[in-house]
Design goal:
Layout lengths: L1 E2 L6 E2 L7 H12 L17
Antiparallel strand pairs: 1-2
């Protein structure tokens, strides 16, 4: 987890084995009390 300033309060880097797990994790974050907005950016691997 990285703290930052500006548009985001923090940036979290995660690694999951598949998209189902990613969706489960993001949904869990989004329903946490105090989370007003979230965005995701996927790094799929080298080109």
């Amino acid at each position: 987890v990285h703290t930052t300033n500006g548009m985001w309060d923090l940036i979290a880097e995660i690694e999951v084995p598949n998209m189902s797990e990613f969706n489960r994790l993001v949904t869990g974050v989004r329903v946490m009390e105090g989370i007003a907005k979230s965005e995701t950016h996927l790094f799929l691997g080298p080109a």
